[in-house]
Structure formats: C-alpha cells, structure tokens
Specification:
Length: 617
C-alpha cells in the first residue's frame, strides 16, 4: 500500500510547495489556538482584582480600571506575573488575528495543493490510458475507468487535503492542549487522557465495520456506471424495442443495492459523532465536578494539597479538554476519509502501475517505404492463459499496392488478423513483417501512421467535419481534405451542408447517418497517406454503387497503397488481387474470385446465397 501511495503522490509535482507550506501555517495556527484559552483565563481572573483595586483607590473610571496593573493568580507551576486588562485584550486580539491569518493561508494553500494534485493525477491517468494497447484496455472496463477518473480521484483529493491540514494540526493540538491543561489544571488533565483509549477503541470498531463496505461499494459504482453508459450509448435500441421500463428497473436495482450499502456504511460511521460527543460531555462533567470541589474547599484532593483554582483556570481547562477531544474527533474524520480513499488509491494506482503491453523497441525503425505485409506462422490469443488460439498458423504474403479481401463468418478472426498489422495487439507466436521488417521493430507512431485502420465501429468526434478529417493529418490543407472526400465518395455529404467543411459534428456523429460516417472515416484515413489502408467492414452501410465507386477511386488514385478490405459482400472484394477465407481462426484458402468460386465451399455458399436470395446480381 505504501508503494501505491508513493506512486500517486508523484503527481503533486509543482503543487508540492503548497503541501509543504500548509502544515507550516497550520502549526502557527495551532500554537495560537492553544494560547488563547490561557490568555482568556488570565483576563477572566484579573477582572475582579482590577475592579477591587480601583474601588480601593476611590475611582470607578473604566479606562483606569483597564490600565491598572494586577497580579495574575498563580497557576499549577506557581508562576505569577502582573498584567493589565488592556494588555490582555490587545494580546487576545493579536493572537486571534494571527491565528485567523494562519488558518486562512493554510486553507488556501491546502486547497491549491489538493486541487492541483488531483488535476495532475487525473492528467497522469489520462496520459497512461493513451499509452495502453487494446490488451490493456480489455483489462479494465470502460465504466470502471470512468469511476476511477471521477469518484476515486475525488476521494483521493479530499483525503489528501484533510491529511495535509490535519496530519500536523490534530496531533499538535492534542499535545499542546494536554501540556497547557497540565499547566492550568494539574492532575485534572489526566481526565482527558484517560478518555482517549475509549475513543480509540470505539474508532477501531467503526473503521473495521466500514472498511469492507466501502471496498464493495466501488465495484457497485462500476456496475452502475456501466449500466448508465450502456443505456445511453444504446438509447436508440432501447426505445425501438420499448425497453425503457426494463432499463429503469435494471438501473433502480443497481442504484438501490448501492444505496443500501451506503446507508449501512453511514450508520456505522455515524456512530463517530455520538461517541465523541458523549466523551466530551463526560469529560466536562468530571472537570466541573472536581473543579467545583477544589474551588469550594480550596483543596486539591488529586494532588493532596491546599490549592486555589480560579474560575478562569477552570474555564481554560474545559476549553483544553474540548480541544483535545475535538482534535481526536478530527482524526476520526480523517480516518473515515482514509477508509474511503484507500480503495480509491488502490484503484487509481492500478491504472498508473499498468504497463502497456505494447511498447516501443530500443532503437526503433523510423521509416516505412512500401506496404508489403507478410505473416509468418502467426498464432494469437487475447489472454495468455487461454487454451485455444484466436488465430492459428497464419501464413500470408501481400505485395505493396495489392487489393486484398478478407471474408469469413462472425468470429472467424478477420478483425483480429488486421489488428495485428498495426500492433493494436502483438502476436503470441510467429511474426508479421511490413516492408521486410518485423512490426515489433518499428517506432509505434511511424507504424500506425503508415497503417491506417477504419474500424467496424465508425467514430466521429464532437467538432467540425474539418477537425475530424484532420485527425488523419493535422496539417491537411482544404484542397487535400476535398481530395480525400472525393476518393471516399464523401464530397456530396459535405457540400450538402451549408457550412461545408465547417459543419458541426455532434457527439459520436449523431447528426450523420451510418453510411455518411463510414465515408467520412475513410476520408480521414486516406488523409494519413498511409502505405497500408485497412477497411474493416467499413462500407457495410453504403449502397453497392457507392461501394464500387470507393473501390474504383482507391485503385485509380492510390495505386501504390496496399488495401486490405474485410467485407461481408462478395461484390466488395470480387475484384481483389487475392481473397483470404477465414474460418474459426484458420485460413481456409487464399485465391482469386474465380479460383475460390471453383474450389472453396465457404466462398461458394456466400456467393450463391447473396446472388440468389435477395443478394446482388
């Protein structure tokens, strides 16, 4: 756990100075607060003697009473001195203002330190996520990552702020107040110290009871976020199947389960206040009872000696007792916050500790000259412990500039195959070469800049059409964007919009149809000017005429670019230089349209089904 805390504390960086300044000002504030009851007791004990001294002089002038010098009653240490009421008041005001100033500055620095720390921590997590491969992302659910970046970091931030303010203040307040209590009340201060074990035992059982519940709660947070995310992203499907009530019930079930756990945890944590209040009231009763006996008899039976205990000293003693026990109460609040944050710290640290499964090699190759692709005895599985390979014994030879089609049933491994080329995953065995070099020897940015992939799920980001296209090339000119749109048959989409390339794109491209999004995503990939272009079923939502025009434009405009197309329609790949037939992670056969139509049963079945039953002619 210490290593995890040390890891996340690295995110404090430039805000570390505020974390250091905070306890410095808190120390001054604490010292001043401990001085205030003592000065107040002196003030209380000198009011009556000052008044009596003025009466003896035959004067009742208020200002003279404030400035007359009076001997302060001796305390437990038999230390006595002369003071004036005005001096006490000015000292009180000065100490109070200094304490206030230190408290304000401590609060400001604590806020800056904690907010800055949380900002850096959230940024570090986000940067870490950007370095993850698909394998790393598969390890965490999206909903869990959202919870870690929001709720968990908020918990860590609150705990951090309470710690840098309270980790110094609370112990010092207990120590200083206890010392002053002994100075003021002698052995009566043992009353407060005797009650401390009761508080510690109570807090131990509260912490133990709440810890397990909070650990379970974060998993339920993930489940709730997953339910919300799934519902929002699939809202059209929910409405089309009229499943709103079902989704509401599912959400309520997850929410009620979490609510029940929270109530249970809060009931346990709520015992903290009654415990502290009962202890404070008990200490006050004991101090008042014993103090009254001492004042009445002028005899301290605790010390077995004659002693005068003043009203001011008794008042200060009560204040110090409240400060001691209140500081312990603050410690308990920190403890509760730490209980909540421990699990959050673990979850945040898990993301920061996760090592990207795919990393740049030492001395990487920084240039790719052509789009040759060769698979050498490739085996692949998503989880190393899996008994069965997702892809097995793949041997493929693709020449630069070729148009290659991939066909196969659902789950046959088509997408897994193309994901290996750009190292979204790494092979388990064998190797993949691009331009004659193993893909694991290339710089990742160089490789992925030269292998453009249009995935099955087409994603457009909030912004404009131009900003989305420039994901392919941030420096692309307007002319280059229009050319990419021409090849992807997206020009008419853009021109149909009044704002053209500056047309607003809503979140996830909600204001564009599936086919329009596919064409814009293809244009975005073309703008990268890659050596290899992979279309993973990326024309499934466009009509056959547009599909044919896209393939024609790719062949004529980009003849040297290797084009690998996963398709469900024979018409999309029948003119390919070679077609790879996938079946259950294996290559069933590789050949041209004519060769496969003569000899491959899978290809024949798909072809005749599409051409005889509502298929293409």
């Amino acid at each position: 756990m210490f290593k995890k805390i040390k890891l996340i504390l690295k995110s404090s960086r430039q805000y570390k100075k505020y974390a250091i300044l905070t306890p410095i000002f808190i120390i001054f504030e604490t010292v001043m607060e401990c001085c205030l009851p003592f000065i107040m007791s002196i003030f209380v004990d000198t009011i009556q003697p000052a008044h009596e001294a003025m009466l003896e002089q035959g004067s009742d002038n208020f200002w003279e009473m404030m400035t007359v010098s009076v001997s302060c009653p001796p305390n437990t240490l038999n230390f006595s001195f002369d003071v004036t009421l005005l001096g006490c008041i000015l000292t009180l005001i000065g100490v109070a203002l200094f304490s206030l100033a230190c408290g304000i500055l401590g609060g400001i620095f604590a806020a800056k330190a904690s907010v800055g720390f949380a900002t850096n921590l959230r940024g570090d997590m986000y940067k870490k996520l950007q370095s993850f491969s698909f394998g790393n992302i598969d390890h965490f659910h999206t909903s869990s990552l959202v919870t870690r970046m929001t709720t968990d970091i908020n918990n860590v931030q609150m705990a951090y702020q309470m710690l840098i303010r309270g980790i110094i203040r609370a112990p010092l307040m207990v120590i200083f107040s206890a010392v002053m209590a002994f100075i003021t009340g002698g052995n009566m201060a043992w009353i407060f110290l005797a009650l401390i074990p009761i508080i510690i035992i109570g807090l131990f059982f509260i912490a133990r009871g709440a810890m397990g519940i909070f650990m379970r709660l974060f998993k339920k947070y993930d489940a709730l976020n997953e339910s919300v995310q799934e519902n929002v992203s699939g809202i059209r499907v929910v409405k089309s199947y009229v499943r709103e009530e079902y989704e509401k019930q599912k959400f309520n079930k997850a929410s009620d389960s979490m609510t029940g756990e929270f109530i249970h945890a809060e009931k346990i944590v709520a015992l903290n206040n009654p415990l502290m209040n009962t202890t404070i009231h008990l200490s006050n009763i004991l101090v008042l009872t014993i103090g009254t006996i001492i004042i009445y008899n002028n005899y301290d039976f605790l010390n077995n000696e004659f002693r005068v205990l003043s009203i001011g000293q008794l008042s200060a003693l009560l204040t110090y007792g409240i400060q001691i026990l209140s500081s312990l109460m603050f410690v308990s609040m920190i403890l509760v916050m730490m209980i909540m944050s421990i699990e959050s710290i673990k979850r945040v640290a898990e993301v920061l500790q996760e090592e990207p499964l795919i990393q740049n090699p030492e001395n990487p190759i920084m240039e790719i000259n052509n789009g040759d692709v060769i698979f050498h005895n490739v085996n692949f599985k998503y989880v190393e412990t899996s008994e069965k390979n997702t892809l097995e014994n793949l041997n493929i030879n693709i020449k630069s500039g070729q148009f290659v089609g991939i066909l196969g049933g659902t789950g046959s491994g088509k997408t897994s195959l193309v994901n290996l080329i750009s190292r979204l995953y790494d092979v388990s065995e064998g190797s993949i070469e691009v331009d004659g070099n193993d893909v694991r020897k290339y710089d990742l940015v160089t490789l992925r800049d030269n292998v453009a992939v249009v995935l099955q799920k087409n994603v457009l980001f909030s912004g404009t059409i131009a900003s989305n296209l420039r994901w392919g090339n941030i420096n692309a000119s307007e002319e280059e964007m229009w050319k990419a749109c021409d090849i992807a048959q997206a020009t008419e989409i853009v021109k149909a919009k009044p704002e053209g390339l500056e047309t607003r794109v809503e979140q996830d491209g909600a204001n564009f149809s599936g086919g329009q999004k596919q064409r814009l995503c293809i244009a975005r990939a073309i703008l990268k000017n890659p050596k290899i272009l992979i279309l993973d079923d990326s024309t499934s939502a466009v009509d056959t005429k547009t599909d044919r025009l896209i393939r024609k434009a790719l062949k004529e405009e980009l003849p040297n670019m290797t084009k690998i197309v996963i398709a469900q329609r024979i018409s999309s790949i029948e003119n390919a230089d070679q077609i790879i037939i996938m079946d259950d992670g294996h290559i069933d056969q590789i050949g041209t349209h004519e060769e496969l139509l003569k000899s491959n049963k899978i290809y024949q079945e798909v072809y005749y089904t599409q051409n005889k039953v509502g298929g293409e002619q």
